[in-house]
Structure formats: structure tokens, C-alpha cells
Amino acid sequence: MTESFDFRKLAMTIIMTIIGILFMAPFIWMISSSLKVEEDVLTFPIQWIPQTWNAVENYREVWTGSMPFLLLYWNSIKVTVLTTITSVFVSALAAYGFAKINFKGRDVVFLIVLATFMIPPQTLLVTQFLLYRWFGLYDTHTGLILLNSFSVFGTFMLRQFYLGVSNEIIESARMDGAGHFRIFLSIALPLVRPAIATYAILRFIWTWNDFQYPLIFLRSEELYTIQLGVQSFADEHGSIYSLMMAASVSAIIPLLIIFIIGQKQVIEGIQLGGVKG
């Protein structure tokens, strides 16, 4: 029985390794292509290790060419970080209220909030556009940040973790004179830290990769995010694949850094959620 179990485990490990390599292949090809001269990008069979290296020239053209990549990076970092902080705080606060504060109509309000999750965001674009023009938030980073400051998914996800926090702890703090906001900051928030980190990383990735909202709500080129910049770069250099791959690699570097830093918290959050399930 033991040998059979070990064989199945070994076979599953090999299968998952092969699947992982297949998923990583396009990413590896992108990095490899960004280091090559243009003539070697589309050669067959694929040269995973470049025979002629052209990395310095490719990345220099991306960073010092016609597109101001440093400004695009700053805009994306500014919008993404502020959006992530705001969204995490608002979602965590709403989730705590729905999980630990008893008020009349709480469950009904929560169902209404969940119902909005079924509305495709594209159906709201015209209304959002008109409202933002009315409030003077169109073509501003502030408006872009506010668009993603509330997340039904984040509220629902964090509420499920807050439900696992013992009510006795909350009641003890209440008896000691602590208000709900103090309990939220000092007790509830630290207890769901892995879930907070997981959602923060997801929100960071979603906001950094967002193309739709910047495309519609930004008009000035000096406010463009990295995704709009890559699109403009593609319009100019779309036929030069080595430069396109260098621009794409440059655009995803912050995502890799964030995931590497936060992967431990993400794994803990997934494990904690699995135990609760």
C-alpha cells in the first residue's frame, strides 16, 4: 500500500511539474525574446538561450525611447498603491461591519451588496463617465483611484475570515470599553492578516494590469499608466517583437516583486481559507 501511494505521489509530482513548465513556457519565451536581436525572435526551433545577445540595446530603447517609461511607472505605482491601500481598508472595514456588528437589516444590505457583484462593470461605464465629468474627477488619478476603492469581492472574502474570529474576544473588548473601530484596528485586523495580505496582492495585480478604466477615464498622456504606455509603445513598435517583449517584461517586474515578497502570506491565507471551508 505504501509503495503504491509513493508511486501515485511521484506520478502526480511529475505531471504537475510538466504542467507548470507548460504554463511557464510563454513567460520564459518572452524574457528570452527580449534579450535577442530581432532576427532570432521567430526562429524555429525556438532558441531559448539567445545566440546573439541584444538585451542592453532593447531595454535602452524601451526606457530611453519615445515613451517616458519612468513617468508611466510612477503613475502606475501611485495609482496602484493608493488604490490598494484604500480598497483594502474600505473592504476590511465593511467586512467587519457585516460580520461582527449587529444592526437592523444587516443581512438584507449584505445580500444587496453581493447582488451588485453580478452586474458587469462594463454596463456602468457610461454612468460612471457622466458622474466623473460632473464631479470634475475625469482625467485625474484621484478619479481612477476611487473607481476601485470598493470591492464586493474583497468585502465578501474578508467577511468570511472575520466570521472565524471568536465573538467572545469582541465582547471582552467591548466590556473593557473599546469601541468597534478600536476593536477593528487592534484585534480583528491583526487576526485576519493573511487574508488582508492575500486580497492586497490580488488588488495590486488587478489594478496594475487594469487597461479599461485608464483608457476611458484618462485623456492626458502625462497621466497614463504603464498599460496605456505599453499599448502606445505597441502602436509605434508593434512589428519589432524584441522591443515589445522588453516592454512587456518591464511592465510585469513590479508584479513579480510583489508576489515574491507576499507569497508566504498568500499561501497562509489560502491554507486558512481551506481549513475554514
Topology:
Elements: H1 2-34, H2 55-64, H3 69-100, H4 106-115, H5 125-135, H6 141-147, H7 152-162, H8 167-175, H9 180-191, H10 193-209, H11 212-217, H12 226-237, H13 241-276
Q: What general form does the structure show?
A: globular
Fraction of helical residues: over 70%
Q: In percent, how much strand structure appears in the residues?
A: under 5%
What ranges have pLDDT less than 50 throughout 5 or more consecutive residues? none
| Rg, nearest Å | 23 Å
Mean pLDDT across residues? 81
- In DSSP terms (H or I, runs of 4 or more residues), the helix count works out at 13
Helix/strand class: mainly alpha
Write the element-wise H/E pattern from the N-terminal end onward: HHHHHHHHHHHHH
Instruction: Please name the fourth-level CATH homologous superfamily of the largest domain.
Output: MetI-like
Distance between the termini: 29 Å
Instruction: Give the beta-strand count.
Output: 0
CATH topology call of the largest domain: MetI-like fold
Can you tell me the CATH architecture of the largest domain?
Orthogonal Bundle
Protein name: Carbohydrate ABC transporter membrane protein 2, CUT1 family
GO biological process, one term: transmembrane transport
Organism: Gracilibacillus kekensis
Membrane topology: Multi-pass membrane protein
